[in-house]
Write a structure and sequence with these properties.
Blueprint lengths: L3 H16 L3 H23 L7 H17 L19 H4 L1 H22 L7 H22 L4
Helix pairs in contact: 1-2, 1-3, 2-3, 2-6, 3-5, 3-6, 5-6
Length: 148
């Protein structure tokens, strides 16, 4: 079970390295990583997966990795509705987008700090740490993601 965070990180890094010259591909890989963390967190919250500190830490670290890197892959001209759900609002309102990214990073930093070295001690602590992250994701998607 302790290998899960390492495996998630290795897969994400390998995919990013492969797609490094295509910012849309990198964004998609990072969002896939985020989606996997959200799915794991949701499964824990619904009691579909039994909580353990290592699971909590893995989800929080995955969210955090995305938060730290995601904003770097939106260069001008990388809007492509055929390949990406990134809304034009990202480039039309860059200050607003950067504000949302800052909220996402802040939520992941707070979650990492609350989790400590071993991960949140119990499900309640995990939920308290992850809910602000999930809310940040929702807010960003509402304003900066194309409706599909």
């Amino acid at each position: 079970m302790r290998r899960m965070p390492i495996l998630i990180g290795a897969l994400a890094l390998a995919s990013i390295a492969h797609a490094a010259e295509d910012p849309i591909a990198v964004r998609q890989v990072l969002m896939d990583n985020n989606g996997a963390a959200a799915a794991l967190a949701g499964a824990v919250m619904k009691d579909e997966v039994a909580y353990s500190p290592v699971i909590g830490k893995a989800a929080i670290q995955a969210f955090s990795a995305t938060a730290e890197a995601y904003g770097d892959f939106f260069p001008e001209g990388s809007v492509d509705a055929a390949r990406s759900a990134a809304a034009p609002a990202i480039w039309e309102n860059p200050a607003g987008f950067q504000e949302e990214l800052a909220k996402f990073r802040a939520a992941t930093v707070a979650a990492r700090e609350a989790a400590g070295k071993e991960g949140p001690a119990d499900k309640a602590a995990f939920v308290a740490a992850v809910q602000p992250i999930m809310q940040s994701c929702k807010t960003c998607h509402e304003g900066f993601r194309l409706k599909q």
